[in-house]
Amino acid sequence: MARGIKKIRWTGEGKVFQSRSNLSTKMVIPPGEFVWFKITEWHTGTTAEDKKKDVSWIWQEHDRNTIIWKRLYPSTFKYAIKLPKKLCGSYSYYLEASLSGKTDSNPTGVYINGLCDKKITASKWCSSVDGSDKRKIPFSYGNNIHLNLETEGLNGDRLIVEIYNIQNLRADKQIHVYTNVKVADGEVNLEIKNTATWQGKINNIQDEEKFYIKVKDQATGQYVLDDNKDDEHARFLRIKNKLVANTPEPPVNNTPLKTGEPSVSEKRYELCKFETMSITETTNKDGKVEQKKVLIFDNGKGAKDVKNEEKPITKTIFFNFDSDVLTKEGLEKLQNTLNFLLVNQHSTITINGYACVIGKMEYNKSLSQKRSDAVKKFFADGKLDSRRIFSTGKGEIRATDNKSGADNLKYKDEKVYVEARRVDVSFKYFGHTAKTIVFETIAPSKDKDLLIDITGFQTNACFRETDKHKKETKITSTEYKAPLVKSGEHITFPIHSALSTWNIAPLQYIWPKWNLVEGAIGNGIDSAEEYNVFIHSCRYFSEKDHSTVLVRAYPDIKWELAFFLNLTNDLSVKWQNQPESKVKELQKKAGKIGAEKRWQQKDASFGFSLKGEWDKGDSGSFNRSKEFKAEYEAKFKKLYGIFSSIGALSEGITSKTKGQIRNIGFKGLPMTIAIKPPNLNIKGTWFLEKTKQKNSTQEVVGTNVDISFNADPLIGLELTIDLLCTAVGLVAGAVSGGTAAPGAVRLYGIIKGKMNTGVDFGNDDFGAKVSSDVFIDLVISSVIKTAIGFSFNTANDTGESKKGKLETTNTLKLELKAGIWVKAEISLVVVKADVYFEVSGKGSASITFGHKVNYDSKGLIYRPQLGFDGLNAEYVIKGKVGLSSKKTVLGTKPESTDEGVISQGKYNEVIPKFDVIKSLEELFGLSADIPLIKN
C-alpha cells in the first residue's frame, strides 16, 4: 500500500492568473508575490505518525530531472513560492512535497511559471561566458564574441537576435540574424563563432566598425524593448578591420552556472540539525517551589550576528581493488553529501578519482576516471544539477611506472594502496553559526540543577568527515574539574553562584549584579558564574569551538537599607535692594552657609542601617544574614561631599534666577532667592530578579529596587520679589512711574488707601510711616514634600516593572505678602494666590518624585520646576498682634469678622506668567538637573 504525499494544492492565498492556470496541475503567477501551497491528500497507506513528520518541499527544473533545491518543514506548514521577474516567462518549474525526501515519479506536484512584461534589462559584449563588459575594447573579425542579455518575462522563450552595423551616410545595415536563441534562467549567453563572415558584408568598411542588436520574440515577431522603450541594445560592439585565423562555426547558447554567497537567514535546511531548546529551572518564591520552562531557541528565530564562514570540505570515497563500483559505505557517505548539496545550491563540486600504482599507468588513469564518473553519476541520478559537477581522473598517486621501484610488488604497502583507491569529493561549505545565546538566572550558593530539553536533534545526516557532529551536549565551567559530556535530548547539569554560603561579609555584592572592588565602586566586574553549553549541528551552530548557550548564574542576595538625614540651613541665598532690617536676617543665613563650607560639614542629624541576607534554602528563606552599620557609618559621615555639590548647584540656581528676573522686566527689583535644604528618610530593599526587555522573548536578570521615600522637603527654591520695585524711603507717588508690575501698583494703591484711613496705633504720624514702609512681596516656593513608594527593575526597558504609590501630592507654595516694616518685623500681610504648577500626578508620576526626579542608568536625578501663570490674588489686610486696629475704617466695619482684619478682597492679573527654571537654562546654557545619587 502506497505511503506518502499524493497531492499538493494552492491554498487560495496569493495572486494567481486563474484564466491561464489549471489549479490542480499548473499555476501562472505574478512576479515578486508569494503564492502559498499545502498538502491536501495523502496516500492511504500513510500512518498518523507519518503525517506528523517533516516533509521535503522540492523545487525542480521543468523536466523533473534536476533538483534546484530542497527545504525541510513540518507537514502542517504552508509553503510559499515567489518568482523574480527574470524567471518569469514560458518556462515552468515543478514544485512537489515528499515524505521520503525523494522525488515521486507520479505527478504529485504542480508546474509554476511567472508572467510579466517582456523586457531587456541589461546587455553586454564579452570575451567569455558572462564575463566582464568589453564594449570599449575592439575585437577582430574571427574572434569568438559572447553576447549576454538579462531579461524579464522571457525565461524559456525563443528569441531572434539581429546584428546591425552602423552606417554613417545611409540606414544601418542588418548583417546577420541568429534564430532560436533560448532564454535560460532569465539570460541569453550567445557565443558567436562566425564573426569572420561579417567582414565581407560591410559596405565601405572602416578601420573600426560599430555594431548593435535588435531582439525579436520568436513567437510573436515583436521587438523586445528596454526600460527606455528602445529596441536597440548592446550598443556598441567595436571590431577593428583585422581578420584573425578562425574557422566559422554555428553559435552556441551557453547557460553559465550561477554560484555565490549563501543568504544569511534564520531558516536553514540541513538534515543535521536541532529545532528547539528550552531550559527548565526550579524557583522558590515566597516559599512556593515552581518549575519554570523557558524556550531559548526556536528554529533559528531571532538568531543574532550570524556568521557564514566559507570552509573547504573534502569527502573521500574508497573503492575495492581494480573496481569502480561504489561500496555500501561509500553510498551512505555520498547520500549524506548529496542531501547537503541539494539544500546548499551555492557550491560547485569537484570530483577527483585516483588509483594505486599496481598495474599499468594508462590503465590506472582510465580506472581513476571511471571511479570519478561513478560518483558523478550518483549525484546526477540524485538530480543534482550536473553543471555544478566537475569530474576528473587523476590516475596513480605517486605514479612512476618504474616497476623496479615503488611499482614493484615486492615493495607492496597495502595501507598506501588502499588509501590510493579513492575519489575525493571537494566543495565549499558555508557554515552557519549565530551569536551565543545568553541565559541569565539567579542561583544559590549550593548546586541547583538546570534541565535542557532539545527537540528534533539529528546528527546521523552530518556530512562532515573528521569532525562529524554528535548527538551530545558538552558543558564547561571553571567550577568543573572536567567538561561534562552527556548524550541525548534531555540534559541535567548543576550550577551555583559565586557567592559562598560562608562568606562572612559579602559587601562586594552590594550591587548584586556586579562584584565591586573595594574602593572602586562603579569599576566592578560581572558577578555571574558562567557555564558554556556546546550543542552543535550543521543547520544552526556548526562550529564546535563556539558555545551555543552561555548560562550566567548570579548570586541570590537581598539588601535592606534604612537611612534618614535632616539638614537645617538653606543651601544658598541671594538678595538685592533689600531694606537694612531685612539684610541682617539674610546675612545671618549666608553666614551659616559659609561656616558649613569652611568646616566642610552640614548641620544635620542622621541615622543608618544596612542588612544583607543570602544563600536562600529550599524553604525559600535565607540561611545567612548580617548587619553592616559599623562598616558603612563612617562612609555616610562623608556625605558632605554630595550635599555640598547640591549646594554649589544651588548657588548657580539662585544666581541665575536673580539674573533671569532682571532679564524678564524686573531690573532693579528688590528680591531674595533661597534654595531650601533636603530633609529625607529612605527605606529600601534591592535584590536580583528576572524581568522583560523590549524586542526579546527571553527574560534577563536585573536589580529589583523597592524604595519608600519621604521628604519634607526633598529640595525647594524660594523666590521673594518686591512687586513695587521700591526701596525703603520711597514715597507712594514715586511708585506709579517706576518699573513695578502694573497690577501690583494698583493693588498697592488699595492697600495704601486702607492703611491711611482708619488705622490708629496711637500715633498721629502713622500714615507717613506707612507711606514709606509699605511692601508687596510675591513669595514663590517650589518645594517637594513627598511620602511615596516605588519599585523598578534596572534591566527592564518596557516600563512594566515600574510601579509607584504617590501618597501625598507635591505642591508649589505661592504666597503674596503685603504690609509695613516696624522695627524689622512684618505688621501686615496679604496672602493667597492662584498658581501655575505642573501637577505631579501627570505623565510618569508613578515613578517620579514630584516634578522631575527620575532614575536611569546614570542615577537618581532631581530637576526643579518653578513658574506661575496669570497671578490672581486674594488679599487680607490684618493688624499684627499687639498692633491691632483700635477703631473701624472711617464709618465702616471690617469686611471680615476675624479679629485684626482691616480689609480683604480679590485682585486679578497682579503679574504675568513666566517659567523661571526653563528661562534660566536658556539664558545661561546650563542644566538645572541635580544628581542626588550617581551610579
TrEMBL record:
Residues 306-431 form the OmpA-like domain. It comes from the Bacteria. It is found in: Membrane. Its main location: membrane. InterPro entries: OMP_bac (IPR006664), OmpA-like (IPR006665), OmpA-like_sf (IPR036737). SUPFAM superfamilies: OmpA-like. Gene3D superfamilies: OmpA-like domain. Keywords: Membrane. This is OmpA family protein. It comes from Flavobacterium jumunjinense.
